[in-house]
Amino acid sequence: MATPAAVPRQTILVVDDDWKLLALVGDILGVAGYTVVSTGDPCEALRLARTRSEPIHLLLTDVLMPSMSGSQLAEELRSIRPGVKVLFMSGFWEALDDYRIRLAPGEPFLEKPFTTAKLEETIQEALVYRAPTSRSGPGASDDLREGAMNTDDLLTELRLSRTDLAHYVETVIRDSRPYLVISSHAVKAWEQREPKTWAKVAGWLAAHDVAVVTV
User: Fold this and answer.
1) Is-contact 81 49, C-beta < 8 A?
2) What global pTM score does this model have?
3) Secondary structure (3-state) at 42
4) 164 in Cβ contact with 118 (< 8 Å)
5) What order of strands is seen across the sheet that includes strand 35-39?
6) CATH number assigned to the domain covering 11-128
């Protein structure tokens, strides 16, 4: 009786001009069972996307590269492979602002330097991540409509409830941040302990184009 063929793992296209990091990431993901295609040249990555017959499930790209930014690469790659998912990595949070990268709420981001465990964990998150869809009109949920409440009303409610969520919203407003870094443990705690309040804050963040980055 023939042995069933092994189910193929996802293919990850890794792009970074740091060749040592490129080799390290390739080794780690290869051992983890992924098919890895690596290049230090964004133009070569686009050529591979055009000529490769096999699917590419995820683009893992550095944000800062000499010949082309990670955001430009992601945009051009998506025009060739519309279904590809993208995971940005960088050692500088400022790079997200400099290149106008707006992460959607909950969208993974890989901060350098990272451990093997963090790399594998973030890759898994990126592969299953789905960007939230905007809902409006009669079909919108009560939570989403409440989440879009004005800033003054939201802050007043948060301060009265004595939740530590008030501090995060105040920080976003004070620093005009396009993203908010929160630990995944804190998010899970809010979802369990203060689900309605967290839904309002998440709705407010989404309405103001503030991305939530969990670490």
Assistant:
1) yes
2) 0.60
3) helix
4) no
5) 35-39, 11-15, 58-62, 85-90, 110-111
6) 3.40.50.2300
Which residues, other chains included, contact 154 with Cβ-Cβ below 8 Å and sequence gap of 6+?
169, 200, 201, 204
**Beta strand 11-15 pairing with 35-39:** parallel
Asked if 207 and 147 touch (Cβ cutoff 8 Å), the reply is: yes
Between helices 70-80 and 42-51, what is the axis angle to 10°?
10
Q: What is the pLDDT of residues 20-46, one digit of tens each?
A: 999 999 999 999 999 999 999 999 999
Q: Tokens 């296209």 belong to which residue? A: 13
User: Residue ranges per domain, the chain?
Assistant: 11-128, 137-214
In the chain (215 residues long), the average pLDDT of successive 10-residue segments reads 54 95 95 95 95 92 87 90 90 62 76 93 88 48 44 72 74 69 76 77 74 70
Separation of alpha carbons 106 and 55, rounded Å: 25
Closest CA relative to residue 55, chosen from 89, 85, 17: 85
Strands 211-214 and 58-62: unpaired
pLDDT tens-digit profile of 194-209?
777 777 777 777 777 7
State the CB neighbour count (10 A cutoff) for residue 57.
18
Residue type, 107: E
Cβ burial of 157 (10 Å; 0-12, 13-18, 19+) is middle
- 161: phi then psi, degrees, rounded to nearest 5: -80, -5
Phi-psi region of 109 (alpha: psi -120 to 50; beta: other; left: phi over 0): beta
